[in-house]
Amino acid sequence: MEQTKNSIENENYCLVCGNEVIHLVKPVSAECSFCGKTFLADSACVENHYVCDDCLKLEAKEIVKLVCLRSAKTDPIDLAMEIMASPAIKMHGPDHHFITPAVLLTVVANYTNSRNELEEQIQKAEDLATKFAPTCSWHLGTCGAALGTSIFLIVWKGLDPEDENSWTEGNLIVSNSLKRIAELGSPRCCKRDTYIALEEATEFLRQKYGILLPVSEAKCNFSLRNRSCKREDCIFFNLKYSLV
Ligand SMILES: [Zn+2]
Ligand SMILES: [Zn+2]
After folding, report:
1. Residue 69: how many CB atoms within 10 A of its CB?
2. Which class for 39: exposed (0-12), middle (13-18), buried (19 or more C-beta within 10 A)?
3. Residue 28: which residues within 8 A CB-CB, separation 6 or more?
4. Alpha carbons 9 and 6: distance in angstroms, whole number
5. Relative to the alpha carbon of 47, which ligand is closest?
6. Average pLDDT, stretch 69-84?
7. Helix, strand or coil for residue 99?
8. How far is the CA of 167 from the centre of ligand 2 (A)?
9. If you ran DSSP here, which 8-state letter would residue 47 be given?
10. In this structure, which ligand is nearest to the CA of 63?
């Protein structure tokens, strides 16, 4: 098998949940957690996830898309944490600019029972995030996870950026997130900023569109893995949920 950078980095860690992958003495028939095809597996993680050779090569954005498209979840925090559990998603970086709109598009489609255009919508969100928020924009005094909320809104509502109402909505949903990120944050925690952006976007959807998504408490898994974690000074910190 040709080894890509991604598959080497994730060789010993489950691409679904980040747990250790164990070699099986006797191969068993198993369904790949990403593509759903059945293979004879000689390894699996402690949570019983198996990932086939092709899916081991998936890039981060492909994993975001696959998890969203197979998900029936309506809780954005729950879905984001499922996605971010994969070691293919880096601790920091612009993947989160796409995770935010992809998660919001998915949970709203599930909540409103309108998944017909979800794949196309997620692709549009990826194109916008890649083109307009390709890097972290802290040097501009902003955060890409917050920008992801307006990417969601523009795609979901088909907003025209030159329209006055669209301009207002797009800026409002971003500013709600940015204000709270500014008040609660510090540099280098894309997980915290993603939780905040999702919470604020959910509140915006409730107030503006009467969409009442369930939002679970974000019990952060990443505190011990993020050297910049503010620990006790972060509202999402709870050591008992942190992965080692
Ligand atoms: Zn696993
Ligand atoms: Zn597969």
Report:
1. 14
2. middle
3. 40, 41, 44
4. 5
5. 1
6. 95
7. helix
8. 41
9. T
10. 2
- pLDDT per residue over 104-143, tens digit each? 999 999 999 999 999 999 999 999 999 988 887 777 777 7
Q: Return the pLDDT at 230.
A: 73
Ligand nearest to the CA of 43: 1
CA of 54 to the centre of ligand 2 (A): 6
Going from the Cα of 51 to the center of ligand 2, the distance in angstroms, rounded, reads: 5
Please tell me the number of the ligand nearest to residue 16's CA.
1
Mean per-residue pLDDT of the chain:
86
Task: Specify the 3-state DSSP secondary structure of 40.
Answer: strand
46 CA to centre of ligand 2 in angstroms = 18
The CA 133 to ligand 2 mean position distance, Å, reads: 29
User: What's the pLDDT band for 93 if we cut at 50, 70, 90?
Assistant: confident
Both tokens assigned to 159: 């907003």
| Alpha carbon separation from 1 to 4, 7, 8, 41, 54 (Å, rounded) | 9, 10, 11, 15, 9
**28 close to 40: Cβ distance less than 8 angstroms:** yes
Half-sphere exposure of 151 (CA within 13 A, CB side): 30
Instruction: Give the pairing type, strands 38-45 and 21-31.
Output: antiparallel
Domain range list for the chain: 5-57, 60-241
